[in-house]
Each structure stands twice: as structure tokens, then as C-alpha cells.
């Protein structure tokens, strides 16, 4: 059986395992326990329009190219930064042309490389104000007593829901979708393909992972945040569906189809997005009920006979 730390890494496991089988606290897993593909190099490629995949095999990082400079979203693990930088350069782009770094959420497997990437590119880091303390403190929100677990990084522009970044004729919209982290941000964009313009989204996440929902909640209001996120996410019109974890949207399968010349572009997948959100919502309610039941059983046991 795989280590319990791997629950957060695989959508299949997240949706299949009860929350009671997940770690009690969201401590970042030791390097030996992490999925092997999280820091495995993979060849970068153009997804659609001006959007390129520059992440590792198991952790997403996306480059948005514009005539006025580029935007890089997410930094994967601390040790992933050199791989992301190498992928950007393999595509023929310069690190110095990256003007902005965006973050989906302040978890070690998506924010860990930001400090190095910021140093090497000189880019401005933009992230949700609700995740700012975690990014700048290098900790997992709700587990501050464990100290810093990833390199600390200064947020240059702390933003709120609805913030828009405009660069090179493109607009990127921040949709706050909290729960998985307090400042979980899904970034909206538009992508052109075959003469049509498609709404796209890098959906942050909404898995429970190792979050405490009932006893000593990870943060105040977390359950309400999750439920609001499911409602909001279902209302969003999304054709091009991307995410921080490639398995969330079958990047590998779609990549093969794209290379084979499939039309329309296989990353245009509105049904896949809606199905994913529905599965996450169902899994959340199951996980919440299990944590509630466990807390109730613990309370009864504490009272004694």
C-alpha cells in the first residue's frame, strides 16, 4: 500500500479513500514519500494558443506568452525550479522576459519553487492576500507551530477575488476558490483556437487532502468556503480546463491526442471540467461526514461509561 502521504497527490486516491484514511495533519511528506513523478523532468509543450506546459511530470506549471512579457503560474516543489527554468528555455523563451509569477495556492508542492523562480526572473509575485501569510512564512496554514517547511517568498501584490492582470492584450482573472487553502485562487484566461475564443481556467483544487474540517479546523470558516467554491466553480463557463496536478484533467492522455493531431484541441473539455467539480463536491461531503462521525465517536469515548 502506498504511504498515506500520497493521498494528496493522486485524484483517484483522493476520491476513493475516506478522509479517515488520510493524514491527521498536512505535514509536507518527506522526499522519499513523495510521488516519484513530482520532480521527474518532462518535455515542455504548447497546450493551446499562447499557453505552454513547463512543469514536471507530476506537478503543473504554466507559461503564458505575450508580446509584452510572459506570465508563469506555479512553482511546484523547491527542487523543481531548475526543471521549470530549463523547460522555459528549451521552448526558446528567456527567463528575464517573465514579468509576473502567479500562484494557485500556498502548498509546498505548488509554491515551493517560487522563491528561486522569483530570484532568477526578477518577476513580480502576485497571490491571494488570504495565502500571503503562508507564502511569506513558508508554512502550511493551520500548522504554523511546525515552522517553515518551504522557502519563504515575498508577495509583491496581494490580491482579492476578481482581480485582473492585463498584459500584452491578454486578461487574467483571479477567481477566489478557497477551501483547499484559504487563498486558493483559480486563474481565468481566454485561449484562441481555430478562429474561436474559449474561456479557460487553471482550477486551484478543492480536495480535502489532509485538511482538518471539524476538530481544530485548518482555518476558521473552511467548510463554508469549500461549499461556496463548489457552487462558484460549477457556475463558471470553462472550455479549456487546466490544474496544478496534471492527473486532474488527464494531461498525459490529452497530450498524446494533441501530438497525434486531434481536432478540436483535446484540452477544450468543458464536460471534463464540470464532471471533475461534481466528483470533488461529492467526495467532500463524504469526507466531511467521516470527520464529523470520528469527532462524535471521540467525544462519546471521552465521556466514558
From TrEMBL:
Gene3D superfamilies: Ribonuclease Z/Hydroxyacylglutathione hydrolase-like (3.60.15.10). It comes from the Bacteria. Residues 1-21 form the signal peptide. This is Subclass B3 metallo-beta-lactamase. Residues 58-245 form the Metallo-beta-lactamase domain. PANTHER family: METALLO-BETA-LACTAMASE DOMAIN-CONTAINING, METALLO-BETA-LACTAMASE DOMAIN-CONTAINING PROTEIN. Keywords: Signal. Pfam families: Lactamase_B. InterPro entries: Metallo-B-lactamas, NDM-1-like, RibonucZ/Hydroxyglut_hydro. The keyword Signal applies.
